[in-house]
Design brief:
Blueprint: H1 7-16, H2 25-32, E1 33-34, E2 39-40, H3 41-54, H4 78-83, H5 87-91, H6 99-119, H7 138-161, H8 169-195
Antiparallel strand pairs: 1-2
Length: about 200
């Protein structure tokens, strides 16, 4: 993750204008941890991402999805939504798109975030090709859902390594963008499920 102002420039600016020196180490530590909840800036983003992908915690309130019942039923997270569909349903064309295509694209985006943030990979990325053909066999549908779960797990694991790092615009933007992207495609997929014959 890149700093917006290089270290040398920050030091020069701090020497001439102490108010611009930025937070002290103690201030940075305090900003990283929510002392009441014990969490970090990463935790809030991962909580919403978890709800979008895994659904709500059974029997507890949710931030934006319908609540999952205490017995685990009523889970409307992305993985549970996809697990209720067959390959044929996922491959059905709905106004020029398929659920399988959205699934593959979402998995690809999660992979790209990790490649971008952790590995410094700046592409090029094949966003159009990430939707695939939109058609999947039974085995390909299983693989697509495993790929989505693997991409999600990798992003969460990487994000947790950043919890003690400064909450830069790049870091927060990357994770928040990933969360928003998953939520967008979850909404699209849930609308497409309603249109299935």
């Amino acid at each position: 993750m890149t700093d917006l102002v290089p270290d040398a420039a920050q030091q020069t600016l701090a020497a001439t204008d102490p108010a611009s020196a930025g937070p002290t180490e103690a201030q940075t530590d305090a900003a990283q941890t929510d002392t009441e909840g014990g969490g970090t800036w990463v935790d809030g983003i991962l909580d919403i991402l978890k709800e979008a992908v895994e659904g709500g915690t059974p029997g507890q309130g949710t931030a934006f999805l319908d609540g999952t019942k205490a017995d685990g039923s009523g889970n409307h997270g992305l993985l549970a939504t996809l697990d209720n569909l067959t390959a044929a349903q996922a491959s059905q064309d709905i106004q020029g798109s398929t659920i399988a295509g959205h699934t593959l694209h979402t998995a690809y985006h999660l992979e790209v975030i990790v490649r971008w943030e952790r590995d410094g990979d700046r592409g090029p990325f094949d966003w159009t090709g990430s939707f695939g053909t939109g058609q999947v066999t039974d085995d390909e549908w299983d693989e697509a859902r495993v790929r989505l779960r693997t991409g999600y797990d990798a992003l969460c694991a990487f994000a947790r390594t950043q919890a003690t790092q400064p909450a830069t615009g790049d870091a927060v933007g990357g994770l928040a963008g990933g969360m928003a992207h998953v939520a967008y495609h979850l909404g699209s997929i849930r609308q497409m499920v309603k249109a299935l014959a």
